[in-house]
Amino acid sequence: MSLKERARKALSKPSPYGVDVDVSSYTIEEPQVYGEVQVDKSVEEAAESKVGIKPSVSQYVQVGQTAFYKLMEKSLEKYGVKVMPLNVALEKSEFARGLVWRLVSPDIDKYTALTYLYGGELGYFVYVPPEVKVPTPIYTCLVLRAERKAMLAHNIVYVDDGAEAHVVTGCTIPHGVKGGLHVGISEFYVGKNARLTFSMIHSWAEGMHIRPRTAVKVGEGGEYVSYYMIYSPVSSIQLFPRTTLEREAKLYAASVIAGKARGNYDIGAKAQLEGAKSSAEIVSRVVAFEDSEIYARGDIEGLASESRGHIECLGLLASPKAIISSIPTVTSRNPQSILSHEAAIGVIAREEIEYLESKGFTEEEAKSIIIRGFMSIEAPGLPEIVKTQARRLIDYIARSGAL
Amino acid sequence: MLLLRLKGLNVCAGDRIVVRDVDLDVSCGEVHVILGPNGAGKTSLLSAIMGLPRVRVCGGTIIFESEDITGVPAYERARRGIALAHQFVPSIRGVKVADIARHIVERYGGDGYEDILDILDVKNLMGRYLFYGFSGGERRRLELYLTLIQRPKLALLDEPDSGVDVDSLRLIAEAVNYAVRSWNTSIVLVTHLGAILDKLYDITRVHIMLGGRIVYSGDLDVAKVVLSKGYIEGLKILGVTPQ
Q1: For residue A180, what are the CA distances in angstroms to A64, A173, A206, B26, B241?
Q2: What is the ipTM of this complex?
Q3: Domain membership of residue B128 as a residue range
Q4: How far apart are CA B32 and CA B141, in angstroms?
Q5: Domain assignment present for B242
Q6: Closest residue to A314, CB basis, from B73, B74, B94
Q7: Which residues in chain B are contacts of A372 at CB distance < 8 A?
């Protein structure tokens, strides 16, 4: 059966996790591509204020089904780095054609199928040549502007052997827009002894359904660092990126989740330790406000000797009406694989607040300090600009959450 | 200069009076030790001075720097210069020690943090979750550190010598001596074992507390009598008949 036929069959196939979404109720516009970044003020403002990314300085911007990219990108050109819409890359490059739908199959569920069949292969394609260490982050920005629309993106990042790169993605919608579907398929390749840090900040709104589908392959001695943050309300979000690691490859995956309103958040990370001495650390910090419902998943499979994995899922229930469910899973298929996990969910205890009050902080300040400290995860090697942005957003979450 | 005055202080925990008719004057740079067995009301007394909601003042007044602070909330007392090193501290998983220390330093400013950090040997604890999985000595040293970096005018130390090893005890005493001599900090220290007393340089007065009352006040010799003979027998020697 062809991929297309398999995808068609999968159009009604729900995901095993998360709320099932009727994808047929969303309209998908025709894909368009422009070789310069020119977005309107509402998009520029939303992206900068909500996810800290200026579309005007981004290498790739997608607004709905319209892609903008910098045809003449001087800052990255000198490193030989290529950034372009995936459909442009597929027209030009046999290499790019060999990378798509290899790590993520179109028939995983209705969301992958929808993107395969109707997405027009919009999304970003990033290639970093061997041994090139790109000091400045590569910015991408995805914005959904109109209601009841679907934004479908398919992203490929290939960091060749010995190279290093930082990709920073912000996904958001302008103020006042509610209701929409975002599906992002991401296939990342981290070469031998290469390093990729991928930071993604999500700020959506009530009524939005978000379905990223990500798979990462890390070559021998390579390293992949993922930092994910969501702090806005949504209708639902479900993501469970999978990383396979070859010999001595490393994964560090951090998720910071602040659940708001009546949102359903099903967020996790999965690692498959396929190579000897590979390692994975999956860390999540979850704070559930208001009526939110959060499922925090971590899954590590130890397949190779001397591989190591650890999951740490910590949750803070900041509302009596919220729910957190923490689901760490470790599976060993090799006696020399060492895996562990810890999960804990708590509340901000009265004694903790009183303790901080005795140090000179008001009740609101005490709550804010606890939330802020709890959500601050230091992922190794993130660009300073991402750390600064994360601190700013965590400050905002802590301040608003303490009230 | 008089810093703290307790006048006829009664403290209640629920419906029960746990501290009765306590009068106490503490001047700047003085070190007052309150000795007493478990359940004597020592912790309740410090909690009331700090303004913790677990107890309430049900009689008398607390004067700090000539102002009646009896109704002032704990955070405001801390900002005025009162700090409490708690006997029991909450462990907060997920929140790092360094985060809390940074917030305190930002709030109070000043200098001398590095000295206290070195004296109490707590630098290696900064990356850990607050009091989570700490040994007794680590817990006491860190709590004293977080108290002293507030640069308080008055530090209330609740059983700083309880459950610590000899090395930690030496460091804790050194830090208290440093705060008194370098910053002229006033200390009210409560203890039931008195293990720290021979390591403190400048003890101004020792008070014996029993059944919620201060029943005797004197110099360090008082402590020696009570600690060697026990509270009941020692007080008899001192000519006090506990009520």
Answers
A1: 10, 10, 9, 66, 80
A2: 0.95
A3: 2-237
A4: 20
A5: no
A6: B94
A7: 99
